[in-house]
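Input sequence (94 aa), recorded before submission:
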Amino acid sequence: MDIASLSETLRDQSLPIQDRFRALFTLRSLEKNPEAVAALVGALGVGENAISTTSTNEENAAALSSSMLHSDALFRHEVAFALGQMRAKEATQT
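Predicted structure, token format:
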């Protein structure tokens, strides 16, 4: 399975959670691959609606709320945890 399809699996909330977790852990195993890191960061919605250090708390909360692609807090936590295990500096550049 390629990284693009794993990324789509992460984002597709209509898929069973076990499929999304399988994609997450497969990407996690590719820790030296910048595309895998980007796919995981993308699953958190980091990017165009990223949190800014110059915005107010309310603006940051709105950006965070609108940027989260997964309503499942546990899944988002696991994605963030995997990024931490990968020591992905790209995930902290907001």
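Checked by second reader. The chain has one domain: 3-92.
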